[in-house]
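dumping this here before i forget
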Amino acid sequence: MILLKNGKVLTMTGVNYDAGDVLVADGKIRAVGAGLCAPEGAQVIDCTGRTVMPGMIDAHCHIGLSEDGTMYEGEDSNEAVNPVTPHVRAIDGINPADVAIREARLGGVTTVCVGPGNSNVFGGVMSVFKTRGSRIDDMLMKETFAIKAALGEGPKETYAPKKVMPMTRMGIAGLMREHLVRARTYLDKKASGRLDKIDLRYEALGRVLEREIPLVVHANRMDDIYTALRIKREFAIDLVLTQASDAYLMADAIREAGVPVVLASVLTGRLSVEMARMSHRAPVVLEQAGVTYCISTDAPPVPIQFLPTSAASAVREGLDPEAALRAVTITPARVLGIDERVGSLEPGKDADIVVYGGSPFNLMSRIELVMMDGEIVTD
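structure:
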């Protein structure tokens, strides 16, 4: 049993404490408040002058798949020989020994969503896991969160040199529709007992069509985002936009569609032509428009320990600090469907907690303690 005592407690529930306490027992948060008494035998950690907050969540990255400090031997994020691979699974390529996973943990990022890159129209299955452990099966929170898909330059750059479809945005959208229609036909045959053989591609896409899981679409340019919204309407599926550099230019349309956005960190810079209008003010505009959004790193392009720095850049542009913290804690937890366990400091939730020496938005503030499932993991 551990009592974090007298810290500035940011709960992400709308109730914060200038001098608050968090009691942890059996891997869970037992109580949050001011003036909590330490139970007999509890370890008391003085957090005076420090910030106590939930472990952060990166809703879109590639750590473990695109291993830090490696070349081909550690690159497993894109099966770039066939544009339609919705059945390949991130967990079969994630290496828990990737140094970036350790750096995430020590950087206060306790949960991540990892999936394939953007080379394929349908890239594969995204998974959510905690950044602690040596076996991915034991680290999982959600083995299947979504199917990753991509519009725009990624598939074009991959397949145009090979002179095969898709070479254009029309071709990308056409393939996406074609295989969603095939998946629908597959489901109909399966339901009526007329199915000849199992097709793992359409088993995976069928879960999207049945709205068991969302389709996460990498789309930066406005035209690509509008294409994603059209496909959402046509097939009545759940959609999450990721990267989404131009989302702030069409915030009203995204809000009306009820689609959440996982913004890539602006710290990458403009890595491609489709990111030409990337703006540090994007979170500010989305917040004002009432769009549900998260901030992510897309690591490894931005090292994952710079997730709070990515949020801080929006604070500098006028975003409320509490809103910025929500974008890396409770909002990604909700988007990923894991908010019953993580994302805020509330009794009953997993004790994933970060203690900063100062503000999490101050680059000079050091993380003094990281707790995961009630155990101190700072090393």
